[in-house]
TrEMBL record:
Protein name: Pyridoxal-phosphate dependent enzyme
Family: Belongs to the ACC deaminase/D-cysteine desulfhydrase family.
Top-rank taxon, per record: Bacteria
Record key words, sorted: Pyridoxal phosphate
Organism: Aquirufa novilacunae
Pfam families, sorted: PALP
Ranges where the Tryptophan synthase beta chain-like PALP domain occurs: 13-263
Cofactor(s) this protein requires: pyridoxal 5'-phosphate
PANTHER family named among the record's database cross-references: 1-AMINOCYCLOPROPANE-1-CARBOXYLATE DEAMINASE-RELATED
Alphabetical list of InterPro entries matching this protein: ACCD_DCysDesulf (IPR027278), TrpB-like_PALP (IPR001926), TrpB-like_PALP_sf (IPR036052)
Keyword Plastid on entry: no
Length: 266
């Protein structure tokens, strides 16, 4: 847990702490391990041939799963969105392939249905991004490591991290959406209710992973000022939103905030 200082919030008596989950591990950092750990702990090679999951060409989740499989001797399969791709398309796919993950590149029209080929039927399936009840339950340990606070900020992809944290506490949690999937998140909240979770879709910057000069500059300045590396896909959007909320008076003076640094390789 690391406190960061800025005149923007110090002048209002607001304290900001960063939960440095990016320091858990150089590869499976942040929420990647927390979402995976329950799946891994309950996995058995006596029941399944390996573990299969889904993701895009730069999936942090698949990257982490490939490393875990390599480290623990568990066969892994990554169903990757985009039939035009191959194992040499980018450095992340190359590394996943080196770690022994079988990469299956699927047409986007088929990927939407998350179809599993017959040769992988005996593989334990982890949903895209690691989302699922075991991932949500895996956030209990994260909340137990947080100090008492007035509000928690967290970036949202599939929503497992923010939902899991919100279900473990009554503290208000603000989930900053990083892609246009609010309807999907609301469906998840039907299955896993969390009344204290507030969704904010004002910081997507157009669409997922879209480059934005203002956001890129913010991430650069934030990293230089606070000596905490962030990236523009997830954590950058979350910290940008939190700072904007403070500037615009959405946070009460003398509040204590905790921002979850969920790691990432980008």
């Amino acid at each position: 847990m690391e406190e960061i200082f800025d005149e923007c919030w110090n002048s209002k008596g607001i304290q900001v702490f960063v939960k440095r989950d990016d320091l858990i591990h150089p590869i499976i950092s942040g929420n990647k391990w927390r979402k995976l750990k329950n799946y891994i702990q309950t996995f058995s090679l006596k029941k399944h041939s390996g573990i299969l999951s889904f993701g895009g060409a730069y999936s942090n989740h698949l990257f982490a799963l490939a490393f875990v499989g390599h480290s623990l001797g568990i066969p892994t399969v990554g169903i990757v969105r985009g039939e035009e791709l191959n194992v040499t398309s980018n450095p992340y796919l190359q590394q996943m392939n080196k770690w022994g993950m079988t990469l299956h590149f699927m047409a986007r029209s088929l990927y939407r249905n998350k179809e599993i080929q017959s040769e992988y039927e005996n593989y334990q399936c982890i949903p895209e991004g690691g989302y699922g009840s075991q991932a949500i339950d895996g956030m209990d340990t994260l909340f137990n490591e947080l100090p008492a606070c007035d509000a928690i900020y967290c970036a949202m992809g599939t929503g497992a991290t923010a939902i899991g944290i919100a279900r473990a506490t009554t503290v208000p949690v603000t989930g900053i959406l990083t892609l246009n999937n609010q309807a999907e998140i609301e469906d998840h909240l039907t299955d896993f209710p969390a009344a204290n979770l507030k969704l904010d879709d004002n910081y997507i910057f157009g669409k997922y992973a879209k480059s934005n000069a203002d956001l890129d500059l913010f991430c650069k300045d934030f990293g230089e000022k606070h000596r905490i590396p962030i990236e523009p896909i997830y954590t950058g959007r979350m910290f940008y939103a939190m700072c904007d909320h403070i500037k615009n008076g959405h946070i009460a003076p003398d509040s204590k905030l905790v921002a979850i640094h969920t790691g990432g390789i980008k």
